[in-house]
Amino acid sequence: MSQKTAKYRKDYQAPKFTIDTVNLVVELDKTNTRITNTMKIKRQGEHSDALVLDGEHIELEKVVLNDQALNTSDYTVTDSTLTIEVEQNEFTLTVVNTLNPSTNKALEGLYLAEGTFCTQCEAEGFRRITYYLDRPDVLATFTTKVIAPSADYPHILANGNSVEHGEEEGKPFVTWHDPYPKPSYLFALVCGDFDLLEDTFVTREGREVALQLFVDKGNLDRSEHAMVSLKNAMRWDEERFGLVYDLDIYMIVAVDFFNMGAMENKGLNVFNSKYVLANPKTGTDQDFLNIESVIGHEYFHNWTGNRITCRDWFQLSLKEGLTVFRDQEFSSDLGSRAVNRIQNVKVIRSHQFTEDAGPMAHPIRPDKVVEMNNFYTVTVYNKGAEVIRMMHTLLGETGFQRGMKLYVERHDGAAVTCEDFVKAMEDANDRDFTLFRRWYEQAGTPSVEVETAFDTDKQQLIINTRQTVPATPGQAEKRPMHIPMRISAYAPNGNRIVLAENLLELTEERQSFYVNGEFAAQLASNEEPIVSVFDDFSAPVKVQRDLPEAAMLTLMAHADDPVSRWDAAQQLFTSRVVDAVKSQSTVEVDKALVDACERLITSDTDPALIALTLTLPNAATVGEYFETIEIDTIVHNLRQLKRHLAEHLHGTMSARYAAIYDELQQRDYRLSGEDIALRQLQNVLLSYLTVAGENYVNLSQTQFDNATNMTDRLAALQASVWGNASNAITLVEAFDQQWRGDKLVMDKWFQTQALADTDGTIANVKTLMKHPDFSLDNPNRIYSLLAAFTQNSARFHQFDGAGYALIGDVICQLNDKNPQVASRLISSFMSWRRYDAERQALMKQQLEKIQALPNLASDLQEKIENSLAA
Ligand code: B3K
Ligand code: ZN
């Protein structure tokens, strides 16, 4: 393949031709699948341009135009296009081509893995199946006849409703028809042998929808939760968004070989089995919650993505930001809103802020793309969801839903832009979002300085703000953003003070706000209010503020908003680590902080919130406070902070741990909010106790041995391994013995060891790559062992460069095999300039080694070029 060149958002042109209907006949064969693709095509507008179809890694056999077979001189084929000079304005074109699904290890297009034929077309995989206008603004009605290789493949699936089935020359076939016009990226077919879980859902209009969940043989006992989640998602979307499912059948297939989490193909979702299969013995509470969230996400795409799709790939956040927002709301309505919000904030701070500060920084609607697969990022997805959430904050639920309704009315069945979404929100609410649009235009994390004062005479709160947006690649100059800032105020004793306004809108670089309130009711004459800003993380910004410790402790204990309470604690921890690193000393804990933690542990606060509050920020989050990331001292001080807290609090911690442990022992495992929260706290306490000293080793041992569920067993293993406890090896071996061969479960075991901070970690990761359950062909194994290792700040960044070399070598091996997975692994090298000179040199060396590969994949090429550019 020739190297790809950059595409720019500004160069968008409407398609020269459209395709109204597609008739596919797919004759599946392990090594030589034949596709006969008949398209009804129409010229768009007045022009005489040739028809240029996309096609890659496929063999052209024949081209037929209006029943007339073409000579090879009538068309031109390159390794990425098929060009045909056509005179007619409306015509039927049939293209016949072949491909080899067995050699497709990139898992893009049509591939065969462990006996299952499967497709993945987003973003540009359909062109690896047949020649086509493979772009999201060409919407066609698909009819797909799939002929299985033999009777060994009883389940033959594609999008829409099945309209015919039978047998041809001993081979079973099924024909599917999808009545909803769709872009090619939503095409799917699956063919294999599965166990099937069936159910039904009755829509609020009274229509019955058949629900089918296909899983690998023998896995029915792990599929219940996915089905329950699907039904919950269907109900929730009706109730909260008024959106109802449209086909008679909804199918989900779980496969073991899949590059990402799942794919929202119309009526036929394909899922990574990790986001379907779990029962209490094999899956953790977090697995169950992830399944609910991903099942919801793909289902919600049926409206936000499929019925209303993207005009071009620069608009990806149109569907992804919005759908992530919707899945976050789904999880929050069904479970704990506070816990969900805090977890989402953590993702932004530890991953998105880093991306925003690095060489691949891009606005949520990028302007320039080489390899589209590189733009399925935390920025497009998670910052994109924050941008939608800010609109929700500015408009309120009623206004936001009014905007949604107008958006759906206007654009159902069309391929549209982020601008169309913002316009619908504006028009439905009579608001002006001119400035707000900068969130779509500007990359980089805004930084907001906040100073507060109290005017005793006027009884008025004064809030001074200054916002800056840093320069990012290709965007030197930035303009101020429209930033919603939620605020609340408290007396020093924690009592809430009623304010005249709780939502301020920042729109200029510097602003002063004067806020009235019922101060006298709460404050003694010598007291000043304590102000909490960015409650509920109301904007994805970094806040700079000098707030006295005493005020932080008040907010930690008393802020109404649970996110702000959690955040105050995080700031207290972070500032200690940052100060220690900056002054080259070792972190200290003082009585005030210890007492605050002690009060929290013994309080009747939601145990999940206690757990989250006690979980220290990770090194990546702390690293964002530095220009040059001094990784050794950050890691060292975080470890010390945890040890100090454990040493001061082990008495309180072990008492609470024992109380929860005993309570949970009394009953069977339940996947209830209450029990999930208790297990979460129990297991965070266990991780502290394990570093408190050898006295507590028996706790992880007992919990591991007696666990009736994976949440407790894995937590015991992790506490022991990550706490470098003396029983770590025993537990690692016991887990291997119990679960070897059960690949999804073994992924947890790989990941736990990849994240261990010991001198032997790198050697161990290399050994684990030879474990019978490991394989470089399977993305899940690579993510659990190797991508996890890149998150191990202490060992990936080990001073001798051994961590870099390990991952660099793997990327080289994956370049030809699976570039999308290789590209994920290289992300951790992107911010090489943020580290010290020695590490910079070592990381750059790996980047240059990879860059020198013959046939460097465009995925890697784009990231390396951006990161090496000045
Ligand atoms: N839309 C897919 C992601 C496709 C990634 C292609 N490299 C899953 C999702 O966001 O729902
Ligand atoms: Zn999505």
Automatic annotation (TrEMBL):
Domain Aminopeptidase N-like N-terminal stretches: 24-186
Which Pfam families does the record associate with it? DUF3458 (PF11940), DUF3458_C (PF17432), Peptidase_M1 (PF01433), Peptidase_M1_N (PF17900)
Keywords (A to Z) from UniProt: Aminopeptidase, Hydrolase, Metal-binding, Metalloprotease, Protease, Zinc
Q: Which CDD domains match?
A: M1_APN
What residue stretches are annotated with the Peptidase M1 alanyl aminopeptidase Ig-like fold domain? 444-545
What is the superkingdom listed in this entry's lineage?
Bacteria
| EC number(s) from the headed UniProt entry | 3.4.11.2
Instruction: Tell me which cofactor or cofactors this protein depends on.
Output: Zn(2+)
Q: In this protein, which residues make up the domain named Peptidase M1 alanyl aminopeptidase C-terminal?
A: 550-869
Peptidase M1 membrane alanine aminopeptidase domain: residues covered: 229-435
Q: Which reaction does it catalyse?
A: Release of an N-terminal amino acid, Xaa-|-Yaa- from a peptide, amide or arylamide. Xaa is preferably Ala, but may be most amino acids including Pro (slow action). When a terminal hydrophobic residue is followed by a prolyl residue, the two may be released as an intact Xaa-Pro dipeptide
* Database matches in Gene3D superfamilies: 2.60.40.1840, 3.30.2010.30, Neutral Protease Domain 2 (1.10.390.10), Peptidase M1, alanyl aminopeptidase, C-terminal domain (1.25.50.10), tricorn interacting facor f3 domain (2.60.40.1730)
Q: Which GO terms describe its molecular function?
A: aminopeptidase activity
What is the enzyme's main class? hydrolase
Question: Which PANTHER family does this chain map to?
Answer: PUROMYCIN-SENSITIVE AMINOPEPTIDASE
Per the similarity annotation, which family is this? Belongs to the peptidase M1 family.
Which protein are we looking at?
Aminopeptidase N
Which organism was this protein described from? Idiomarina baltica OS145
High-level lineage: Bacteria, Pseudomonadati, Pseudomonadota, Gammaproteobacteria, Alteromonadales
